[in-house]
Amino acid sequence: MGMNKYQKSLMLLNKIESKYGSIVNCPEDDPDYQMIRDMYPSMDHESLANNYKNKIYKLAHEGYSVTEIINKIPGDNNRIINFIKDNDIRLKTVFKYRVVSPAGNTYYITSLSHFINSHFKYTSNSVSRMEFLKSRKYRVYQGKYHWRFIRNGCYYLPPYLDKSVMRTGVDSYVYDGK
Known about the structure:
The protein is of the alpha+beta class. It has helices at 5-20, 31-39, 45-62, 66-72, 77-86, 112-120, 129-135; strands spanning 95-100, 106-109, 139-145, 155-157, 165-166.
């Protein structure tokens, strides 16, 4: 079995130190030093910044909220919030419910009353919303459902739309005002 990256770099480092006494004395063009540099390329400030920006865009595209993005990316929370605002990054709704109809259609929604009103054209007031759906053989699951986990062919109903929309691809999300 071959050496892993760490073992290989440690061996090269020992070789360099036996040649020069310390890595500090090693010239940049030493072949062993170059091999270590190839294994661990340095991240300059610009590529770190791009990596940071790309992570924010990726998480927003996948449907994470500002709070979740802040929790997933280390750094200054205000910088992340300002980056999202300054770049007009459009956030997607994080859905609270997954509702499965008797026919097998899956809906991702934020509000049971909004769904009932939209789907059944009925305003539920006396009966609990959960009971209303269960009496019609709908299964309701509560959780946090992000865009990236919603499969094509499923429906979603953000609070600003009046009817459910089918997901037809990663870029098929309907934003508010579009």
